[in-house]
Amino acid sequence: MKFDTIPQVCLVDETLAIRVLDLRPGEVVTLKLWSSFSDVVLLSSAAFKADANGVVDLGSHAPISGSYEGVDAMGLFWSRAPVDGDTAKGFARTSSDPLVSTLVAERESGVASTISCPIRRVYVGPGVVSRDVRVRGLFGKMYEPAQPGPHRAVLVVGGSNGGLAWSQEVAALLASHGYAALALAYFAAEGLPLTLDRIPLEYFGTALEWLSAQTSVAANNIGVLGVSRGGELALLLGATYPEIRAVVAYVPSGILWPAYPESGYGAWTQNGEEIPYARTLTHEQWDQALAAGDARKDSFDWYFIPLRDAAYANRASIRVEKINGPVLMITGIDDKLWPSTELTEFAVERFKQQGFRHRVEHLAYAGAGHSIAWPNGPTTMLKSKHPVSGEEMDMGGTAEGTAHAREDSWPRMLAFLRSALVDH
């Protein structure tokens, strides 16, 4: 029994061909994948029956049992889940490098009944260079491809977690695919506000100026990409700065919302003034709406009821028709953090009403929640505590649905950027 060739190091978004060779036809072999991060052990497992050639191929064979179902080349990767107790202790010898996953094949008996293969999955590809950006009040990290520029560039902004969470991983991967990418924090980092509260758009204007001045950057080919509140921000920045030629917004909103955590102020300012935003119902208003039968329990009506007022919704709508290039929006229909699919449709409808002249695409995935990003990461941990507010969060969707959304949307996002950021 042996593994077919598997790279020891590869990008996290790369799909691997995992094959076990030299088995007996019909023999059952169990594949396990484990990794550890901050003393948490993640484990997946699936049993397969070898074909007539004595081969198990995850790209064409479904497991007969295990942590995922159906044919899925990377099913062992997304279905990893935390384990504890004696199971976790059994992996105490494992690598503490969170980027290393170890693939194990176990046969029921016989010589060489277990084989293993460590795989280091990285965000920064060969030759990509990075540097901290701490100029003009900016807090960011710049990633540049190995090849000489000038390169198409992307400004990457995270969501309400703050700092460089999410944005630096995405920026690193984009650089690995040939883009110059600036991951930019806008709160919860040195020299910046503590929370998402009255963030001046001029800060991002400064970032765009700095980015376009870099010799590695093609200044007429800059896009913006953001997630969640950063997806809202990506649409807003595209509508504000015409030098942005493409927008990618993950689980965003076409409506602007208040500061987070709520402070009584808006999230964004321009020229020292708060940009108009919508508010959800207060707890008291929600209780009244439920009692009156105007709201559905366990729904997002506390978002939607205020937006039934067309004038109110229009006032808080992002002027997306001003965006100077194509737009891609990606949402999970079962998002439980906020109703990203419906909130994105406000932008879609506005594009239609205003006769937007560029391409608009909205990828909405059934079974997926809020946690859509690069593929092949574990999608089993759908509930957590918000690092800024401490609130309990439910990302929504299923592990399988979210994994599918990641796998399908990521290459489509890369293809979108390739076609949208062309010479102008």
How many structurally independent domains? 2
CATH architecture of the largest domain: 3-Layer(aba) Sandwich
**Secondary structure: number of strands:** 23
Q: What are the low-pLDDT stretches, counting only 5+ consecutive residues below 50?
A: none
Task: Record keyword descriptors for this entry.
23 strands; 424 residues; 10 helices; globular; 8-stranded mixed beta sheet; single chain; Immunoglobulin-like; alpha/beta; 7-stranded mixed beta sheet; Rossmann fold
Notes on the protein architecture:
There is one protein chain. This protein is of the alpha/beta class. It folds into two domains: 2-122, Immunoglobulin-like (Sandwich); 129-420, Rossmann fold. The chain is built from ten helices and 23 strands. The strands form five sheets. It has an eight-stranded mixed sheet with strand order 11-12-14-13-16-17-20-21, sandwiched between helices. Strands 2, 4, 5, 7, 8, 9 and 10 form a seven-stranded mixed sheet that branches. Strands 1-3-6 form a three-stranded antiparallel sheet, with no helix packed on it. Helix 9 links the parallel strand 20 (327-332) and strand 21 (360-365). It is globular and about 75 Å long. The N and C termini lie far apart (55 Å). The model has no long low-confidence stretch (mean pLDDT 95).
Explain the layout of strands and helices:
Layout: E1 2-3, E2 9-11, E3 19-21, E4 28-37, E5 40-49, E6 56-57, E7 65-66, H1 75-78, E8 81-83, H2 85-89, E9 100-107, E10 114-122, E11 129-133, E12 139-144, E13 151-157, H3 167-176, E14 180-185, E15 199-200, H4 201-212, E16 217-227, H5 229-240, E17 244-250, E18 268-270, E19 273-274, H6 283-291, H7 301-307, H8 310-316, E20 327-332, H9 340-353, E21 360-365, E22 383-385, E23 392-394, H10 399-420
Parallel strand pairs: 2-10, 13-14, 13-16, 15-18, 16-17, 17-20, 20-21
Antiparallel strand pairs: 1-3, 3-6, 4-5, 4-9, 5-7, 5-8, 9-10, 11-12, 12-14, 18-19, 22-23
